[in-house]
């Protein structure tokens, strides 16, 4: 049997989301780093949208998209562990997890993470033909304005629940943490905006499954000094 593969980029938040779930389930996979800004014909065969991540299971099942892969892992790898950990038992509770996963993976990503990662990470790796140019200052300003609202929303949830979606740790926490971790690496999270959000992130960041993300390093773009500090 072949090893499972994850086509990813270290600063693709959706890829980080899947990496966290894989680590939480103690799954060993082979990581294949891709360039999200390049339309790779081989990847288009697996995922016509041309987006990351793409997961190829050890049975050759191909699954695309962070939230889709995450639920696939819950149903397959979680089931192997004898439980459906990371998704609640009741339908209404699962709906809330999915609502928040969608919120973080689309709204937070679209209003904050995508701007900052594109301008501060991807553009530094692009060739001129691929669109390399100066960072868009307006996009960075928009992300910096938007993130305060999102941090406060995370704090609102964290102050009223044990975890973001309810009583138990769920996919919602990892979807949010994946986005925040990219922004935090760049030193762009205003942790003074909400203490409850900071305390929640410290709990997630302290999990063993988070350690590989804290070891990520990008040549030419050093991590914020507090990035890997569990007591930040």
Automatic annotation (TrEMBL):
Residues 2-81 form the GST N-terminal domain. PROSITE patterns: GST_CTER (PS50405), GST_NTER (PS50404). It is an enzyme of class 2 (transferase). Pfam families: GST_C, GST_N_3. InterPro entries: Glutathione-S-Trfase_C-like, Glutathione-S-Trfase_C_sf, Glutathione_S-Trfase, Glutathione_S-Trfase_N, GST_C, Thioredoxin-like_sf. Its EC number is 2.5.1.18. Keywords: Transferase. CDD domains: GST_C_family, GST_N_family. Residues 90-224 form the GST C-terminal domain. One of its GO terms (molecular function) is glutathione transferase activity. Homodimer. This is Glutathione S-transferase. It comes from Kaistia dalseonensis.
């Amino acid at each position: 049997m072949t090893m499972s593969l994850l086509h990813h980029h270290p600063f693709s938040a959706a890829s980080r989301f899947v990496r966290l779930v894989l680590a939480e389930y103690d799954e060993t996979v082979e990581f294949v780093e891709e360039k999200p800004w390049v339309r790779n014909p081989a990847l288009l065969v697996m995922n016509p949208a041309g987006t990351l991540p793409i997961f190829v299971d050890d049975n050759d099942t191909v699954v695309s998209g962070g939230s889709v892969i995450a639920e696939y892992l819950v149903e397959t790898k979680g089931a192997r562990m004898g439980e459906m950990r990371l998704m609640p038992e009741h339908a209404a509770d699962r709906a809330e997890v999915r609502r928040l996963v969608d919120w973080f993976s689309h709204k937070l990503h679209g209003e904050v993470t995508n701007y900052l990662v594109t301008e501060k990470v991807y553009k530094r790796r692009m060739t001129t033909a691929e669109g390399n140019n100066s960072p868009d200052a307006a996009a960075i300003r928009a992300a910096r304005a938007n993130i305060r609202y999102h941090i406060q929303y995370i704090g609102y949830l964290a102050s009223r629940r044990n975890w973001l979606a309810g009583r138990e740790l769920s996919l919602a926490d990892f979807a949010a943490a994946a986005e925040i971790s990219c922004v935090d690496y760049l030193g762009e999270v205003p942790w003074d905006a909400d203490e409850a959000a900071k305390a929640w992130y410290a709990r997630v960041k302290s999990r063993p499954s988070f350690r590989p993300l804290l070891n990520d390093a990008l040549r030419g773009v050093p991590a914020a000094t507090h990035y890997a500090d569990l007591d930040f």
